[in-house]
Design brief:
Largest sheet: 8 strands, mixed
InterPro entries: 5'-Nucleotdase_C, 5'-Nucleotdase_C_sf, 5'-Nucleotdase_CS, 5_nucleotidase/apyrase, Calcineurin-like_PHP, CpdB_N, Metallo-depent_PP-like
Helix content: 10-25%
Number of domains: 2
GO biological process, one term: nucleotide catabolic process
CATH architecture of the largest domain: 4-Layer Sandwich
Distance between the termini: 60 Å
Protein name: Bifunctional 2',3'-cyclic-nucleotide 2'-phosphodiesterase/3'-nucleotidase
CATH superfamily of the largest domain: Metallo-dependent phosphatases
Shape: globular
Number of strands: 39
Number of helices: 16
Catalytic activity: a ribonucleoside 3'-phosphate + H2O = a ribonucleoside + phosphate; a nucleoside 2',3'-cyclic phosphate + H2O = a nucleoside 3'-phosphate + H(+)
Family: Belongs to the 5'-nucleotidase family.
Amino acid sequence: MRHRPAPPRKETLSALHSFSSQAGAGQVHLRLMGTTDLHVHIYPYDYYADEPADTVGLARTAAHVASVRAEAANALLFDNGDFLQGNPMGDYIAYERGMREGDMHPIIQAMNVVGFDASTLGNHEFNYGLDFAMRSIAGAAFPVVSANIVRVLGARPTEDMPLLPPYIILDRMLTDGAGIAHPVRVGVIGFAPPQVMTWDRRHLEGRVKVRDIVETARAWLPVIKAEGADIVVALNHSGIGEPCHVPGQENASVPLAAVEGIDAVMAGHQHLSFPGPGFDGIACVDAERGTIHGKPAVMGGFWGSHLGVIDLMLEQAGNGWRIVGHESALRPISRRNEDCTVTPLVESERHVLDAVATEHRETLRYIRRPVGRSTAPLFSYFALVADDPSVQIVANAQMWYVDDMLKGTPHEGLPLLSAAAPFKAGGRGGPDHYTDVPAGEIAIKHVADLYLFPNKLRAVRVNGAELRGWLERSAGMFNRIVPGMQDQLLLNPDFPSYHFDVIDGVAYRIDLSQPSRFDAKGRLIDPSARRIVDLTWQGQPVSDEMEFVIATNSYRAGGGGDFPGAMGNTIILEAPDTNRDVVLRYIAEQGLIDPRADGNWRFAPLPGTTVLFETGPRALRYMDQMTALNLEPAGDGPGGFIRFRLSL
């Protein structure tokens, strides 16, 4: 890996942390800083809206890094993965400019300039292929470690053939409270969710294997300790979920923290913030103090929204060091006000912006390239309560493409359907995380806004029972509603919008008075539940024996989300094109599109019943286009959202 010097760090006048003022001879105050889920967000800029954004950007997070370094003599900076994909700059590099041997990826260049000490891989590092990922991280001036993604499995994790070093030991001279420098050895080990083999099977199958996170940690920790690590930091691109270890666990930070030898955990993947109230009530987790099994942990939001900081007080113990005190905290880059405006809390670090200024300008030219025109606006503010134009256009494009691809095959002539979900529908992304494209010219930035991920198009062949199960899985988006009651909360906050598949080509209603057949993670909890009613194709009821082809994406078809009929064994078409490229080609070929939703799904009537749902404040401008719904504004919601009341 090439090593490039970081620029001089800006000195900031800051108050010393109490550990620094308390440390005496033989005591060291060490600050561990962490970012996670940067997703190529370097500039404070929303490339989809083509306007500045104060809520994102490593250039802003870097201001906190400079401040923390000024507050303590000893500091290390880590990244927790998912840095290579996630916005149009990442797409521009992957699809337009390319990554040849020796090229520098802009996010790596920015991380070099900020001065990271180590990183690990997330699942999205592989969205553009394994070779792209390896060429990109080759430019890192810091070690990138990954313990559970390997080229060949051995008899046990320590005998695997690694893809990258499973861990690194950083030898640092740290200054104690008396001003004396001491050698301290910091072990750093990295993990990614095992589900990456499902999500990016097309890129990874036959090339790498992925082990369980906790199993891998248990095998490597004795090795790291035997090599002389005084403390060990786990860079775990995995969330804070179930407290007990389950093989293949996606969000494994709680059982990982219990592994002997791990001293601190930097979590991620969930796009949430820890410490924080969102994790109240989880066994072995102190959401206020920021500890898991009594050990310090952080999760720094996403897109550079927060810097996680773990403060450690180390004390000499024999020939090594032990932790005698710790604190966990987050430093946000912005604050959302009660009036829904955003106040930046830091300014961008100029040297970080300058490092990728050329790529930023090239990305702007790329996203502004026109591809067609639309007769109507494309917006997703109501995508979770009604058929939606931003989802409709994706479904139309997928069906158009697959219809042509199936000609001359044994599947030609089967009823063709199309499954699409709203990727930008608020939730963890916040009240600005919605598609909002005005009528008129459509540019590449708008297509990227409609389809955020570089999935490839797939088609699956299912029967009527699997189709119904697929829709029942999607209907887990909603809480169970009691008929006749007023103002019940409609949306399940644990259910991500990208799992709310709308299937075009059939008509159906969702009976909210019924229980959900599946929980938010796709686990079957009530086999007899039937929320999907009046399911028809061309006006005729759908029977269990009928057969259909569904156009979808590689993530879903390969088992992502655990949908009936989409577990990897029903695929009949593996297209060479991404879904986003299909949407782009569809718009370009049509020239002028009419994306109005066809209203093929709706809620079953529940007389005398109202529900509340949250959406972005800009939804108010589109109320007059939602006449099919009985809607009215219902005041402000938490976190900058607004609420609507929907009569059922």
